Amino acid sequence: MPISRSTQARPWFALCLALIAGQGLAQPAPTPRYQVDIQRTAYGIPHIQAGDFASLGYGVGYSYAQDNLCLLADQVVTVRGERSLYFGAQGSATVGFQQVNNLDSDVFFQAMMDVPALRRGYAQGSPDARSLMRGYAAGVNRFLRDTPAAARPAACRDAPWVRNITEVDVMRLLEEKAIQASAGSFVTAIARTQPPAAPTGSVPPADLEAFNRQHRINDLPIGSNGWAFGAQASSNGRGLLLGNPHFPWTTTNRFYEMHLTVPGRLDVMGASLGGMPLVNIGFNRDVAWTHTVSTDKRFTLGVLTLVPGQPTQYLKDGQPQAMTTRTVNVRVRQGGVGPLRIERRTLHFTPDGPLVNLPQAGLNWTARTAFVLRDANRLNTRMVDTWLGFGEARSTGDIRAALDLQGIPWVNTIAADRAGLALYADISTSPNVSAAQQAACTPAPFAPLFAAAGLAVLDGSRSACDWAVDPASRVPGLRAPARQPVLVRQDYVQNSNDSAWMTNPRARIEGLDPIVGATNAPLGMRTRMGLREIGARLDGDGTQPGRPFDLAALQETLFADRNLSGLLMADDALRLCRDQPAVTLASGAAVDLGAACGVLGAWDRRSDLDSVGAVLWREFWNRARQIRGVYAVAFSPADPVGTPRGLNLGDAAVRGQLLQAMGEAAQTLRANGVALDAPLGTVQGVTRNGVRFPLHGAPDYEGVLNKIEPPALSPAGYEGVTGNSSSYIQTVTFGETGPVAQALLTYSQSTDPASAHYADQTALFSRKQWVTLPFTPAEIRADPATTALRLEE
Predict the structure, then answer these.
(1) CA atoms within 13 A on the CB side of 781
(2) Helix, strand, or coil here: 700?
(3) In this structure, how many other beta carbons lie within 10 angstroms of the beta carbon of residue 729?
(4) Cα 244–276–723 angle (5° rounding)?
(5) What are 701-732's pLDDT values in tens digits?
(6) Is the pTM of this model over 0.85?
(7) Catalytic site positions
(8) Angle of helix 167-178 relative to helix 127-146, nearest 10 degrees?
(9) Which of 517, 412, 431 is nearest to 475 (CA)?
(10) Cα–chain-centroid distance for residue 411?
(11) Gyration radius from the chain CA atoms
(12) DSSP code of residue 447
């Protein structure tokens, strides 16, 4: 019975309580704030079970810190804007998918992280999301308390920047993930943008090639393959899914495998990006999903007409408006150890966002105009609830309903369910700008920038050119879910980073607004390879009739490493070198092509470990693909999978450049000590703790589904993985009682070289071996590697 205030006030009652306590009667133990069970199965995969979401987050934070403490702590320093304090101003920071210097990173994050607004946004979401974030921070801090500095990984042992984190830090980590394809692509540009000095000097000419090399807005350096099969295309009549995201092997964009359970609410397994307390790509008992990077643009630029003589005032519908400012004070120590100094910088904003200078695109703040970046993902506090909705889903219909929260930041969603339905949806944060509005609101000088560089520049002086507000959208200015591309099929859907229009060739999606994606446009090599492989399996390839897919067929198709550029062009390259077996390079060097021609003739048109000729082809095709007019058959919307194809040997100029490319490729191999007939696996690989693991796969431009992006060829070969590559790969279908899933985390769970899980799955990936994921309690108990840990606080 509750104690009333009058009872509490009685002195004799307090005396009785003291006497009872003195008699040593047992008092009930306080209920722990956090209580979680963590079981780890083979390859270090944690299965985290808790009675509430705060405790679940506690277990996730603790587990992730066990495996990736230094990586997480480094990223927290980044999003706090403290890198210059610990590592010096000129050191390097990874933000999203690019490298920037520490000072620019600190200015950006201190100015752009609006903590009060983030708090308000999360306060409007579910209590579960907030509890998960709070628990995650507490779990990381518990690991720090449990682990003395001497027992921490060598990379951050005794480091002063490894400190407790807060719930606000988790919000910052999530915000950084959200803006990676928008403001996060312009960290340096935003951090250095200042009003023009008076008098205004001349501005440098635009250099769109340099802009595209640096920012790649039309060709984001991240990608994925996602396939979902329905009842008509799967061997068991249930859904079947392949998830193959191509993400970094370093930074907190590495995936982390885990299984999360709150009995009666959530039972989901898969992988999260580092620093995120939930599963991003995964499956539960009834539905599986993956994501691929979308073509949808996540930002627009507004060109502001400035008030004459007032470079920080602009006109809106004819009325002058003043920009606002944010001044940041970045603490800097040279090399992280020198005397402390303060670097002060002031950035300018309008209600749409920060001012930005992009001189390579010809977008400069002058006395007459300035440019503001509006970001659809800034303050996207709906992500956690959206992915929690995925985890609780029981069908693709539930996935579709969760997407209506408008929290998915910059990816497509591909899903399959137990009932045999396959879903594709690009329901994500998209500026609500129609084709007609974009045409009417783009000033003529900036119109070419959209096709050439992915920059939509709208007239910021007119309210009519602001993002349209649709009552059906939860967020003013974002495109409503009902107006975004969706396809539900019983055969299949797929995406490999092209727009929605060829999700399934039998049901083309056309009429997309340009902001969302192109239609009737050339497809990427991986999209074409995927559609070709799917069609050959389902429809037959001339040697055998069509067959449905199952897990084994999905895995074989992905790791067959068939090379589309070789399949389409290598025969013509052979004709080229057989017709002219020698070439004199522009350098004057004479190259005999006879041996190279023989190697290409024996090549199996794959990028597998034992593929002889794959290295020579890579060096040739990387040069040849850049030749204007290289294809014999141009792209045709009537045959988007089959075109373009062939080498244009009939054009003398193209033919001469192709011969140069072949000679340069052969010479490059010889100069680096690589034999022309070296199998790919002897040249391409990674080394972990002194053990080399050969890698199959190839860069994006070769058209191999299993994407591996190595550095340029050197005497060490293609050593290491420097670009975004196959990462967490999952294949999932559904049995009578639960999911049937096999997966691989190519780079393994931990970034700590001392961990047993630093390279164990990398070895499996090299050998094309899969991990069967234990999902049910019985499967977890049956794993001989299972260990158990209970945490309470």
Answers:
(1) 3
(2) helix
(3) 27
(4) 45
(5) 999 999 999 999 999 999 999 989 999 999 99
(6) yes
(7) 224
(8) 110
(9) 431
(10) 8
(11) 28
(12) T
